[in-house]
Amino acid sequence: MSKTVEFYFDLGSPATYLAYTQLPKICAETDSQLRYIPMLLGGVFKATGNASPAIIPAKGRYMFEDLNRYAKRYAVPLKINPHFPINTLMLMRAVTGIQLHHPERFQAFIDGLFNALWVEGRNLNEPETVAAVLSEHGFQPQAVMALVNDESVKAALKGNTETAIKRGVFGAPSMFVGNQLFFGQDRLEFVEAALREL
């Protein structure tokens, strides 16, 4: 059986962005597969009673400082988005649609959106900004919006989110190695260790 990391993610989480920058390297070094599973973090929060740490001002300030520490450790760019929090319903439906219908372009799609959010700090709450970002990365906004409104895509994202909740996910990023759950960009060393033990 091949070694796999199941990566439950939502674009709107800066901690998820940091994990996304590191997981491909970890998987390459451990000869493992990385399986991206888009979910809706808002749905997870609603079902579990959890909320973003940023709603508590002192905790939010600390979280952003800590994320910057990790960005420096990983040597990756990070700009805390001035428009945070971002409503990611449309974005995560788009991600799900691309994954289902254009898997060969999935990596380029999430690369562009993660970069827009957490490197460029763009306001992806605005449909016109989303359209501009998609165009810049070679995607047709109207075609992507058709996927966003596709009922099978909506159902797939909802199903992923429900499965995540059933498996014990309460936030993002959440990663599974087998049945072991690891939460947070600060737990990647444990993800790597679990892969090496398989």
From TrEMBL:
Residues 4-195 form the DSBA-like thioredoxin domain. It holds the Pfam family DSBA. The keyword Isomerase applies. CDD domains: DsbA_HCCA_Iso. The keyword Isomerase applies. GO terms for molecular function: isomerase activity. InterPro entries: DSBA-like_thioredoxin_dom, GST_Kappa/NadH, HCCAis_GSTk, NahD-like, Thioredoxin-like_sf. It comes from the Bacteria. Its EC number is 5.99.1.4. It catalyses: 2-hydroxychromene-2-carboxylate = (3E)-4-(2-hydroxyphenyl)-2-oxobut-3-enoate. Keywords: Isomerase. Belongs to the GST superfamily. NadH family. This is 2-hydroxychromene-2-carboxylate isomerase. It comes from Pseudomonas granadensis.
